[in-house]
TrEMBL record:
GO terms for molecular function: oxidoreductase activity. It holds the Pfam family FMN_red. It comes from Heyndrickxia sporothermodurans. The keyword Cell division does not apply. The lineage of its organism: Bacteria, Bacillati, Bacillota, Bacilli, Bacillales. Residues 1-144 form the NADPH-dependent FMN reductase-like domain. It comes from the Bacteria. This is FMN reductase.
Length: 179
């Protein structure tokens, strides 16, 4: 089983660090799973223009293939203007509708206000519902104050939530696969 972590931003590093930490925790708890990080900063992805996903080329096709081949996901985004990033929304628009269907998704977000966690509840979970995904009930929201000046997560409660989400998504996916 391959757990794909998606850092859904083309700027900054905190979201990637959170997604990496969740992936590492999942691997420590379940060494038999495969993990992979998809960092959108490393790809030159075209804007979705409504065509069939199979007709894209280059980095866009690579990213679509990476997302489509995963068994389950950790998806992270910084919250800008009370919403997910445009880069993540574009990714959701690019992938085939069935790419996430029947698969578990766990969400993580970073932001500068304590209310921005609501983006997970009000935007990301409904999108996962559209894709017919199974959404982990828990998620991780990391506020700016939870990082130190070296961008290390210093809040023990956040670290516990990271470990809990990692366990939850793997447990859920294994339960769905009856493995």
């Amino acid at each position: 089983m391959k757990l794909l972590g998606i850092s859904g931003t083309i700027s900054g590093e905190r979201t990637r660090l959170v997604v990496e930490k969740i992936l590492q925790s999942a691997k420590e708890q379940f060494p038999e799973i495969e993990i992979e990080l998809l960092d959108l900063q490393k790809y030159d992805i075209q804007f979705c223009d409504g065509r069939n996903p199979s007709t894209y080329t280059g980095d866009t096709k690579t990213v679509i293939d990476i997302v489509s081949s995963a068994d389950f996901y950790i998806i992270g985004t910084p919250i800008y203007q009370a919403s997910m990033t445009g880069a993540l929304k574009n990714l959701f628009d690019l992938v085939p509708v069935d790419a996430f269907s029947g698969k578990v998704i766990g969400f993580a977000a970073t932001g500068g206000t304590y209310q921005h966690y609501l983006v997970i509840e009000n935007q990301l979970k409904p999108i996962a519902g559209f894709f017919r995904s199974f959404v982990a009930p828990n998620y991780v929201y990391v506020h700016d104050t939870h990082f130190n000046s070296s961008n290390e997560i210093i809040d023990q409660n956040v670290i516990q939530r990271i470990n809990g989400l990692a366990h939850q998504v793997v447990f859920m996916q294994k339960s769905l696969n009856h493995k």
